[in-house]
Write a structure and sequence with these properties.
Strand 1 and strand 2 form a beta hairpin. It is built from ten helices and eleven strands. It is an alpha/beta fold. Strands 3, 4, 5, 6, 7, 8, 9, 10 and 11 form a nine-stranded mixed sheet that branches. A two-stranded antiparallel ribbon has the order 1-2. The longest helix has 28 residues. It is elongated. The mean pLDDT is about 90. It is about 45% helix and about 25% strand.
Length: about 290
């Protein structure tokens, strides 16, 4: 026998949906092509598989028996081909995350991932802030003030904000205490325009009247401006830990701003089950979970 595999597959799909038209859509063929393949299969088998009606098709008794016999074989064949193909080719996962999270937390841990999973490629897409539209990705890490509205959400860790500046400003203003806030520009992220006022309320500073407030559209810009001596910034922890350990930034005050801001891992609803995605999601949770 020289029965083409594509004819058997076309038959199984048509038998399942009982429509040459719907089968053709799944197979990216025309309905006439599907009908022709099945007709050839019927001629080779020597019996009809379908009763063709005006607007429908129905399996014959022999067609039902043949379907139940051949469907498991076709499924196994497709599964074997898919498993072999996946084992021979690297898979690629696209992940979206804030650029500051990427540079300060994710990239330093990336070597660990590549050693554990050399056959899974990553494509990293970064966004400047939570207000920027999320990019199309298999998985996303987002910063939000409450649990995001998504089908599968994993909470990672909360963040807090600390007032910091470079060593030169610290030496000049540390002895002045809170009075420094009236003389030095204050830096923050534009997504939290009232963060300095909230911090001042928390530490009970009366008549808080900053000399100047400078806003940036990225947290990396905030930290960089503070490091270069532009002013005192509210920088997020724990992401800025390396800036402090390398003494690029110094805490001017020990008081921190505690908020509801947290990082979350989101798996998008449209993603079908994928072992590589599951492996990566588990690694993210184990690595960055609070």
């Amino acid at each position: 026998m020289q029965t083409p595999i594509r004819g058997l597959r076309s038959f199984c799909i048509a038998a399942k949906c009982l429509s040459f038209k719907h089968a053709a859509t799944q197979l990216f063929l025309t309905p006439s092509a599907v009908s022709h393949q099945i007709k050839q299969l019927e001629e080779q088998l020597g019996f009809e598989l379908f009763q063709r009606q005006t607007r429908a098709i129905v399996l014959t008794s022999a067609g039902k028996q043949f379907y139940h016999a051949i469907q498991p074989i076709i499924n196994q064949l497709e599964s074997t081909i898919a498993d072999f193909t996946n084992s021979q080719q690297n898979q690629t996962i696209t992940i979206s995350m804030p650029e500051f999270f990427a540079s300060e937390l994710f990239v330093p841990k990336l070597g660990e991932w590549t050693q554990l999973n050399p056959s899974i490629n990553l494509q990293l897409e970064t966004v400047k802030s939570a207000s920027e539209p999320a990019k199309a990705a298999d998985l996303s890490i987002v910063l939000a003030n409450g649990q995001p509205n998504a089908s599968i959400v994993h909470e990672l860790f909360p963040i807090r904000y600390a007032p910091a500046c470079n060593k030169k400003l610290y030496k000049k203003w540390v002895i002045h205490g809170f009075d420094a806030l009236k003389s030095v520009p204050l830096i923050l992220h534009q997504s939290r325009p009232w963060a300095w006022h909230q911090w001042a309320d928390r530490v009970n500073i009366e008549d808080f009247d900053p000399k100047q407030i400078i806003q940036f559209d990225s947290m990396f810009g905030v930290a960089r401006a503070a490091q270069q001596g532009m002013g005192i910034a509210l920088v997020p922890l724990p992401m800025s830990r390396a800036w402090f350990s390398e003494q690029l930034l110094v805490k001017l005050f020990d008081h921190e701003l505690i908020t509801n801001d947290k990082y979350y891992l989101i798996q998008h609803e449209s993603i079908e089950y994928n072992p590589a995605l599951d492996t990566f999601a588990q690694w993210v949770k184990q690595t960055f979970l609070a």
